[in-house]
Amino acid sequence: MEKNNRPRPMGLNIGSASIIMLFTVLCLTVLAALSLLSANSQYRLAERSAAAAEAYYAADAEAAAIYERLKNGEYNGDVIITTETAADGGTLFSYEIPAGGRQALSVRLTRDSGGGFYITEWRLVESGEWTPDEGLNLWQGPDE
């Protein structure tokens, strides 16, 4: 038997198993980073959602307390209430309770001539002033 007298090449001999392992580790690292970013984003969204729900239900409870005080004739003037005379001789009461951010809970009540109260409106409305974005420069075609 003859020995192979050829010189061995210098350098690293990386096998296909090592390349596959390196690629797998790289993919798992990227996947872990993306999962972390997604979890952080979902957490912030859940926090904002919980804060919005808490603000809404606090406003709802305050509006319900004012409704009960109005119904029982015990209103003490802690919220500005506008009144109007209805066409049937009853009275329309309306007030808004801030519900966090730029939202408010709008309530409209009707008291008929017999003294009964009815809820006409109980909804969340935008309370801030809307200003459109006019900074969009669209291409109008080639100049002639």
Description:
40% of the residues lie in helices and 22% in strands. The protein is α+β, with helices and mostly antiparallel strands and 144 residues long. The chain has one domain. The N and C termini lie far apart (87 Å).
> What coarse outline follows from CA principal-axis ratios?
elongated
Helix amount: 25-40%
The number of distinct β-strands equals: 4
Radius of gyration: 34 Å
Number of helices: 1
Notable traits:
single chain, 144 residues, alpha+beta, four-stranded antiparallel sheet, elongated
Q: Which helices and strands occur, and which strands form pairs?
A:
Layout: H1 16-72, E1 82-85, E2 91-98, E3 103-111, E4 117-126
Antiparallel strand pairs: 1-2, 2-3, 3-4
In brief, what are we looking at here?
This protein is α+β, with helices and mostly antiparallel strands and 144 residues long.
